[in-house]
Amino acid sequence: MLAYFAIGLVVISLFLYALLFMIECGATVLIASPRLSDGRDDGVYAYIGPVWETTNVFLIFALVSFIAFFPGAVPIWGSALAVPFLLFLAVTGVRVVFMLYVFYHRAASRAIRVLLAVFALAAPAVFAGAIVPFFLTGEMPYGSAAWLLAAVLAAFTLAATLLISSSFFSYLETRRRGSIETKAAGWRFVRAVLVFAIPFFGMAFAQLPYIVYPSAALTGSFANPAAARVLFAAFAAGFILVMPSLMWLFRLSIGKRRQ
Amino acid sequence: MDTVAFGRAFLGTTMAFHIAFALFGVGIPFMISLAELIGIARRDGDFTRMARQWTFAMAVLFVAGALSGTVIAVVFAVLLPPFMAIVSKVVILPFFIETFAFFIEAIFLGIYAYTWDSFKGKWTHWLTSLPIVIASCASAFLITTVNAWMAAPTGFTMKADGSITDINQWQAMWNSAVPTRTGHSIVAYYATTAFVIAAVAAWQFIRRKPSPSSRRYHEKMLAFSLAVAFLFSLAVGVTGDTSARYAAQHEPEKFAAMEDVTSTRADAPLTIGGIFDGAGRLRDTVTVPGALSILVGGTRATVITGLSAFDPSTWPPLFIHYFFDAMVAIGIFMVFVPLLFFALRGMRPTAEMGGRRRGWAYGRAMGWLTVAAGILSVIGVEAGWMLTEIGRQPYTIQGILLTKDAFTRSPAVLAYAVVFPLFYAVLAAVTLLVLVRHYRPRNVRADSDPS
Q: For tag attachment on chain B, is the N or C end more exposed, with fewer CB atoms within 10 Å?
């Protein structure tokens, strides 16, 4: 039972990371293209500014809690996924370095903005295409039938990224203008999130009781009971501290209106 | 190059970069919070301006530190599976708690950076800096407990077949090396950050004649940062002494190698400097008779265990003596520089010197010394970690896991890993570029928020 709770925690934090990350990826596309952004740059910067440093923490949290709660699975995915993980990290890393440059430097050239957008879109594609299929099938996508799955996942994730981020920034824009369309735009964003969330959670939970199919099962790789208790206690305390602060941050980030 | 040597070189580079970012991630929030506090308490706009300007550096360095930290998390999982197999069972708790500290740090960094002038109460904005200070310090503490555990592994039993039982993560986290190791490193980060800020201020007096308002601002910045640097450098000295005595008691091989004690003896001399000859013996040293015994135990009768008491296969590389001496020499320099500054600053200007004596504190010579202290203090932190990590060899987890067994067996993985030192070089270059561009004199304004 506890193991199911723990995997839920990991999957939810990974989902939140994916969501924030996708919105940011879309933001980098808007920043790269004046035609698409249509003068919304300031809104994009105002949202991203306070939030983007927190986004990466969700990834770290997902990764550390996955290792902490399921130490038995680490040797399996750790060695098999070494290269895809390093690749994902390199792409994400380049993205963050570019963001650092574009974001805090503002005067970055068009070419650098476009490169940023390319790397930003490559990152979710690599994650969905090279890392996720291994957990689902236990095989690497290259040299096996899993490549088709990898291609579908990567394409779907890219489409979801564009859908979610464009609807999010439209919502922000209508909200800032105080437009009557705000509510409708909000619903468009919620629907876009659902389009991504349903297959995401569906795949994650259809996978159970396996973590890595078929070599690592949930209960077999779960931390020992004493360790699990300490980790849950730490989680409860941490959650109580972090949640209100996170709410405050998001209110600050999306709450500013132009008037 | 063989797989393990390659892996170690890679990991060493990764860690050396990370610590350079991370130490500022711990130090800058503290300096900012202190500057804003002084600004409010003394109604001194210059201090508020300092806090405001450094906020940009804090935000940029946090990104760099977070990224290099993420890389390290993945690198450990990927490159050191046997090591992670043990850590993930025995001492993952500090990492797990650290992610929450990390959340708090990132969240309040966003809040702090974007809410200057948004609150009515004059203390409210300052209060939002406290979670960053506490969380960044907690992060450093928690991560360092794992490093301490690698030197003093407890909280589990390892059977002959390598399986692990009787796990107590809480006990593993609070192992015996925690107080000395966390204390010494965290105060060193504060001291180093203060010195680097002092060096930036001193640079203004070296490069050109600042305008009167800029002069006043940078004089305050220099005096403030050197005062903080002085206090923490003293703390570095005190905790360093405790750390060395901890090593003498609990890590005798490392202690013998870093102090160059070959055979066990009482009345052991303190060996300073020297060069290793071809046969691995230290020559041309300065020795102080009996001093090492006195430093460790208070009397010349204190017996110090020499390297000959241990199997040579468990000796750390003897060159750690250099790291140790470098660290101590830099530590002494770090106390000396602020002392000199405040002595010069305290002197009364006299007529026969053209009223210039007091100006020496803000002169070029003092400026260069301060810049040197800024650079050397970073090198000191690096030397300290080299001493810790190389001093623990041949083990990754003392007595439990040899470094040669800790790495992945896949050479292909290591081949890919080579991009990361390159990546770090780019990250460091971009970070520096962004900082230098932002702080160019014409860009420095009172309202330089990162927004």
A: N
Q: Please indicate if any CB of chain B lies within 8 Å of the CB of A232.
A: no
Three-state DSSP class for residue B157: strand
What is the domain count for chain B?
Answer: 1
User: Judging by DSSP bridges, how do beta strands B275-276 and B157-158 pair with one another?
Assistant: unpaired
Chain B from 240 to 299: CB within 8 A of any A CB: none
Beta strands in chain A (DSSP E): 210-212, 216-217
If we measure between CA atoms, which residue out of B129, B104, B99, B97 comes closest to residue B115? B129
Q: Which residues of B328-367 are buried (b: 16+ CB within 10 A; e: fewer)?
A: bebbebbbebbebbeebbeeeeeeeeeeeebbbbbeeebb
Across the interface, of B81, B104, B131, the residue whose CB is closest to A79 is: B81
Residue-range definition of the domain harbouring residue A201? 2-255
How many residue pairs bridge chain A and chain B with CB atoms within 8 Å of each other? 195
CB contact under 8 A, B108 and A245: yes
* Distance separating the N- and C-terminal Cα atoms of chain B: 47
**Most B-contacting residue of A67, A103, A257 (CB-CB within 10 A), to test interface:** A67
Q: What's the CA gap between B338 and B377, in Å, rounded?
A: 13
Beta strands in B177-326 (DSSP E): 270-272, 275-276, 282-283, 286-288
Interface of A with B in 166-205 (CB under 8 A): none
| Chain A residues inside the 8 Å CB shell of B62 | 53
Q: How far is A167 from chain B (nearest CA, A)?
A: 24
CA distance B285 to B274: 4
Residues B75/B24, Cβ–Cβ less than 8 Å: no
List, as ranges, residues 71-100 from A with C-beta within 8 Å of B. 71, 74-75, 78-79, 81-83, 85-87, 89-90, 92-94, 96-97, 99-100
Cβ neighbours around A49 below 10 Å, total:
20
The residue that leads in pLDDT, B397 or B2, is B397
DSSP per position, B264-295: -BSSPPEEE--EE-TTS-EES-EEETTHHHHH
Establish whether this prediction's ipTM goes over 0.90. no
Quick check: is B362 in a domain?
A: yes
In chain A, the number of structural domains is 1
Average pLDDT of chain A is: 80
Q: pLDDT, tens digit, for every residue of A170-185? A: 888 787 777 788 788 8
Contact A242 B100 (CB under 8 A): yes
Assess B67–A contact: CB distance below 8 Å, yes or no: yes
Q: A87: nearest CA in chain B?
A: B416
Per-residue model confidence as pLDDT tens digits over B248-280 = 888 888 888 888 888 888 888 888 887 877 777
Q: Which residues contact B97 (CB under 8 A, 6 or more apart)?
A: A234, A238, B138, B142
Taking the CA of residue B79 and the nearest CA in chain A, the distance in Å comes to: 8
Looking at per-residue pLDDT, the higher value among B335 and B72 belongs to B335
| Cα maximum dimension of chain A | 57
Residue B132 contacts residue B107 (beta carbons within 8 Å): no
Contact check, Cβ <8 Å, A81/B78: yes
Helix axes of B93-114 and B129-151: crossing angle, nearest 10 degrees: 160
Contact of B63 with chain A, judged by CB distance below 8 Å, is answered with yes
- A257: which 2 tokens? 């209106």
CA A114 vs. chain centroid, Å, equals: 21
Domain assignment of residue B84, given as a range: 3-264+305-443
Q: B443 pLDDT exceeds 60? A: no
